[in-house]
Records
---
Amino acid sequence: MTNPSSGSFLLFIVFQSFGQHGRELITSELALRILSILSEEQFLPKMDRASLNGTLDNVVIKVVPMENLNGRKLVEAGNLCERRNGRGVDLNRNWSVDWGKKEKDYDPYEENPGIAPFSEPETQIMRKIAISFDPHIWVNVHSGMEALFMPYDHKNRTPDGLPSQRMRLLLEELNNVHCHKRCMIGSGGGSVGYLAHGTATDYMHDVVRVPMSFTFEIYGDNTATLKDCFKMFNPVDHTTFKRVLNDWSAAFFTIFKLGPHQIDVHSKAAVSSMDKWVSIDEYFDGYLMGRRNRYGKKMEVLEVGMQEIRTYFRLFLLSSVLLLFMFCSRISKTGRQIVSAIPI
């Protein structure tokens, strides 16, 4: 969504994902609330239309309200603790950065990373959107606690340099104004108490090169038992439900307002094409996904042979290099023989 009155070429781009884990129902409710405000069906307290329109000038917002539809269906059918998708894979462990590594406390029911990076249609679609959309800010919204996380999830530290400092400054502002200083701030891996491998936020930071990549945890009830997943991840009374939606909707509109001042949009637009190159694996994943989208179920067999295709392609490249080397060596030897046979 964007303000159609904007005539500027350089736009500030925000990409948001909600409902990545089925049991975190409140996150999709927040997405719908944000969309209703953007469409002017509802308004935030203390925010008028003029302020809203001014904030949205030159801002483009892409929202995925419910990334894990099949997981949500399982929860609504009564499996209130389910976080994985319909194939039993944790979508926030299925990305390629540090994929597949398992900690000592690894629980396959909670963190199944899938058979390969991007083995799931949901993560394939999200990756394709991210690369084509090329956002300035990425926010992956979860519940289970109150926290504002930045990379890394698979390391016990945050990135180095000025971009990391800018991310932390923005998170501190959100914590002070909207989280009432309750939210934990820092890297996901260094703050939660465990490392997570193959997450969306680490991929957005390391591969897509999103200047500001975040994971927000918008609600958690630490008094709930482990078996009471609905209460642990979602508010159960109307007052708390309304407060969560109001506070976090306002936080996102603060991002829309302050984000362009934290990031140099011009420098992002001037990133060289070299930074956008992808690996052979990335290329084939995208190619096969596109073929499946075009031909439907008939192309699902390609998923099984993806590893073989990659292997054959690498062997083809290697053999081509060797043949070229042999050819050049033979030409070089032949040239020396011809020269030596010419009388002086």
---
Amino acid sequence: MTEPLHSPANLQPWLTLATPATCRALATISHPSDVLPAVEMARRLELPWRVLGGGSNTVVAGHYDGVMLHMVTQGVEIEPLRGSPWVRVVVEAGESWPRLVRSLAAQGLGGIENLALIPGTAGAAPVQNIGAYGCELSQVVDSVEILDTDTGKQRVLQADECQFGYRDSLFKRPEARGWVIIRLTLRLKSADAWRPHLDYGDVARHHQALGHPDTPAGVVRTIETIRSEKLPDPAQVPNVGSFFKNPILGRTEYMDLKARFPTLPGFSVPGSDLIKVPAAWLIEQAGFKGHLTEEGVGMSARQALVLVNPGRCSGHVVLAFAREVQAAVRAVFGVELVPEPDIVGA
């Protein structure tokens, strides 16, 4: 490994929710070749291990008695495909996702601009199948390369093998437990073949009002402005972005609920008879938007879906509050909210 194991390790600086947390050891992964030695050491010590990217989608409750693999691998390779408008972009797992989006857009490459300012690393993006403003990562992924720590071999999974779904993928399944994502390949379009995707919500109106050009970089600036206005900055107010997934209901269930709550919004899931309901609306109607406990944890006043932790409360306190929100939404609407971040140690 480029750097030795740090043991024990304070995780709080690496968690955007800023919960006080520790782990038995922290291994810095600066190169894919660092992964197996770290995992082998954990196994020799009979300790569990897991990957930590940007810490923007992780809630650690107290102490994790295992080894965290902190992915900081860097590198981006751009390969134009001859005779095609497509461009292949190979990205190492530790690359900052917001910085990557901004950099590629500045080079005139389009396809991920609506995913601007989503915190985290490139390697974490396919796990969650990150999405925003009508776009998902699955629409631009060509392949994901993993290291199977059980066999020691690397494997390339094509997009259709990744089982992408709404904030879901194969990488969350039990069979992927020993895998580490080491890089991903995106298929983007050159500026002359690219077209903006602005038909989600009020994105087009904002884009026009801001006067940004219809270029990948222009759309990135629009999306970053929208997100900055609506979402608290984790560097200022600790959070992990959206804390709950938007519930997906059957059409009959949705219509029954809408009969009781006429202003209930809903969005059709393409290719199905399902309806996606904004969790933020449910949380706000249940009375939690802007609510902050005495300990200093609550739901943002700017966006009800974002759980904030200005009091830097423990993971246990945060999760107890999240369960309180879930119970209230369940009592009012009969709908179950599912946490979006990875929860460790609860």
